[in-house]
Amino acid sequence: MTKECFISVDIEASGPIPGEYSMLSLGACIVGAHDVSFYTELKPISTSFDPAAIEVSGFDLAVLEKTGEDPLVAMLKLKQWIEASSGDAKPVFVGFNGCYDWQFVNWYFIKFVGSNPFGFGGIDIKSYFMGKHSLPWSKTTSSQLPLKYRPDTPQTHNALDDAKAQASIFGKMLAFR
What we know:
Blueprint: E1 4-13, E2 23-30, E3 33-41, H1 51-57, H2 61-67, H3 71-86, E4 90-95, H4 98-113, E5 122-124, H5 125-133, H6 159-175
Parallel strand pairs: 1-4, 4-5
Antiparallel strand pairs: 1-2, 2-3
Helix pairs in contact: 3-4
């Protein structure tokens, strides 16, 4: 059986889809070892933005144009971090509403690096929770999590803070039998 390394990933973006909108920041950490982490802020690839997305993230696209990392450099650094952090284990993408975050991470990896070290999928914590407890989708929001799964750290819309909170949630779900 292949050993797996669960990596919690969260992103902030300027809108709902990659390509037309930009991934602005990315945070990642190892589930069960939250201090093994990665964070980057990226130069926008587009001037398109959804005002609500910018309000949530708190980023200024003009500032990121000057201070953000080139997406190629950022994604190469992330790939190297994933490989170093997962060692001989298979890296597995984990996200809370993972479909949203994974689409950006996958698109950026394919566009700038040529391949995605996570492969073609990952674990969505909301879906895992739904299946684990036979709940309807409408009961899987983070505010509806039972106390036993609540994160140890706050969710702040900082990609690394949220990746750590998600890792805490997923680790607790894995541990609960």
